[in-house]
Amino acid sequence: MNREDVKKYLRVDYNDDDELIEKFMNAANEELAASIDGYDKNVRSASQEIIICAMVMEMYDNRGLNGSNKGYSRMVRSMIDHEKYK
Asked: What is the mean pLDDT of residues 2-7?
């Protein structure tokens, strides 16, 4: 999965935020690596790719919020937990 795939998920068709989206992708990969034993960003399941996209979307959509972010949505946390306990 590359930045263009994530941009399609985000419905972003311009390049102004490419660097920011890359940073969010890296942060999401780091979060999954810390949460899921044996996670390999080069060999992801379809579910893991959706989790990455959803995490990036939440980071992207909530980037202007100051201190009010309570973490990822229930859906994202549930998907991570499912991957964690497979």
From this structure: 97
